TrEMBL record:
Keyword Transmembrane belongs to the record: no
GO BP term (any one): L-histidine biosynthetic process
GO molecular function annotations of the record: ATP binding; phosphoribosyl-ATP diphosphatase activity
UniProt keyword Signal present: no
Similarity comment text for this entry: Belongs to the PRA-PH family.
This protein's encoding gene: hisE
Name of the protein in its database record: Phosphoribosyl-ATP pyrophosphatase
SUPFAM superfamilies recorded: all-alpha NTP pyrophosphatases
Subcellular compartments: Cytoplasm
Organism name: Anaerotruncus massiliensis (ex Liu et al. 2021)
Location (main, coarse): cytoplasm
HAMAP family, alphabetized: HisE
Length: 108
């Protein structure tokens, strides 16, 4: 999953830095932040509706649309994907440590 996300983010960064004809990603960068944020909001709502309707295949597709548009927003804001990975990893370790602490507390 990390490789796929990193690969996609590289493409998005490349589109941002090298505009080209016919690219939807370039179209979003050209339109600017408000358009990118509007798409993030729309895609988020579509994920919610698909999940609420219990349609897993549709939900999966909408999640992909949302992740793609979030990556475009991150590129527009100069947020490295590595920073998100770092934060998630720190939380995983912190929460894992807290659970271990509580478990050992209960066992004593
Ligand atoms: N992952 C995606 C991806 N996911 C969704 N989309 C586009 O997001 C749009 C969402 O559809 P909508 O109907 O909501 O929007 P729309 O009506 O087409 O456009 P709007 O006028 O609403 O902005 C579609 O045009 C999809 O093609 C994506 N476009 C590109 N990518 C990736 O980006 C790479 C580069 O794409 P280009 O920049 O187009 O070369 C591709 O190879 C893909 O890997």
């Amino acid at each position: 999953m990390n490789d796929v996300l990193n690969g996609l983010y590289e493409v998005v960064l490349d589109r941002r830095d090298h505009p080209q004809e016919g690219s939807y990603t370039c179209y979003l960068f050209e339109k600017g932040l408000d358009k990118i944020l509007k798409k993030c909001g729309e895609e988020c709502s579509e994920v919610i509706i698909a999940a609420k309707n219990g349609k897993n295949e549709e939900t999966e597709e909408e999640i992909c649309d949302l992740i793609y548009h979030l990556l475009v927003m991150m590129a527009q804001q100069d947020i490295p994907l590595a920073r998100i990975e770092e934060i998630l990893e720190a939380r995983r370790q912190k929460i894992g440590n807290l659970k271990q602490f509580h478990e050992s507390d209960h066992n004593t």
